[in-house]
């Protein structure tokens, strides 16, 4: 039996769904995130899908950074994230792939959920683990529970 990534499974039978047009890859600039981004980019290229790459600056992290380094330094966090995201994408073969990058601040799972809804995401690809634990991470668990699209862990 050949597996079709554009099909959903219900009681062991493929159920055709709409074609993958928008793939979301949330990134945190970890090694795992880089691998997921590479796989997501390859999938987007194979499917002719738009690749949405999202980095969320956690509001709690930003407040902590501001308290320890000052408001001016905290203002540079977004600029640094933009540079990191540009560098990550430059390493990939993205010829012919439409890429939409976003950097936002807030609750990570909520921002991912908002991006899913606002951009009509068909598939989210994200890491299962949080801080090296061997179980579904807190953010991944929240995204899986709330997403109204396919989630690839």
Provide a descriptive summary of the structure in words.
The chain has 153 residues and is an alpha/beta fold. Helix content is 44%, strand content 24%. It contains six helices and seven strands, in the order E-E-E-H-E-H-H-H-E-H-E-H-E. A five-stranded parallel beta sheet has the order 5-4-3-6-7, sandwiched between helices. Strand 3, helix 1 and strand 4 form a beta-alpha-beta unit. The longest helix is centred in the N-terminal third of the chain and has 17 residues. The protein is globular and about 45 Å long. About 7% of the residues have low confidence.
Could you name the key traits of this structure?
globular, 24% strand, 153 residues, five-stranded parallel beta sheet, alpha/beta, 7 strands
Total beta strands: 7
Cα-atom Rg, whole angstroms?
16 Å
Helix/sheet category = alpha/beta
Mean pLDDT: 84
In terms of quaternary structure, the protein is single chain
Task: Report the order of strands and helices.
Answer: EEEHEHHHEHEHE
**Main β-sheet: number of strands, strand sense, barrel status?**
5 strands, parallel
Number of distinct helices:
6
Portion in helices = 40-55%
Instruction: State the end-to-end CA separation.
Output: 22 Å
Q: Ranges with pLDDT <50 over ≥5 residues?
A: 7-16
Task: Determine the strand fraction and express it as a percent band.
Answer: 15-25%
Choose one word for the global shape: globular
Give the spatial strand order of the biggest sheet.
Answer: 5-4-3-6-7
Secondary structure topology:
Layout: E1 7-10, E2 13-16, E3 22-27, H1 31-47, E4 50-58, H2 59-69, H3 71-75, H4 77-90, E5 99-106, H5 108-119, E6 123-125, H6 138-146, E7 150-152
């Amino acid at each position: 039996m050949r597996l079709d990534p554009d099909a959903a499974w219900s009681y062991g039978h493929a159920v055709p769904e709409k074609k993958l047009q928008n793939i979301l890859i949330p990134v945190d600039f970890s090694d795992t995130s880089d691998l997921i981004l590479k796989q997501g980019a390859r999938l987007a290229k194979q499917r002719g899908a738009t690749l949405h790459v999202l980095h969320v600056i956690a509001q709690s992290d930003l407040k902590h950074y501001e308290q320890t380094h000052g408001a001016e330094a905290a203002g540079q966090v977004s600029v640094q994230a933009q540079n990191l995201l540009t560098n990550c994408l430059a390493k990939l073969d993205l010829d012919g792939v439409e890429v939409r990058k976003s950097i936002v601040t807030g609750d990570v799972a909520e921002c991912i959920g908002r991006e899913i809804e606002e951009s009509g995401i068909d598939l989210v690809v994200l890491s299962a683990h949080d801080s090296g634990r061997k179980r579904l991470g807190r953010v991944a668990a929240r995204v899986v529970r709330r997403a109204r699209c396919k989630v690839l862990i």
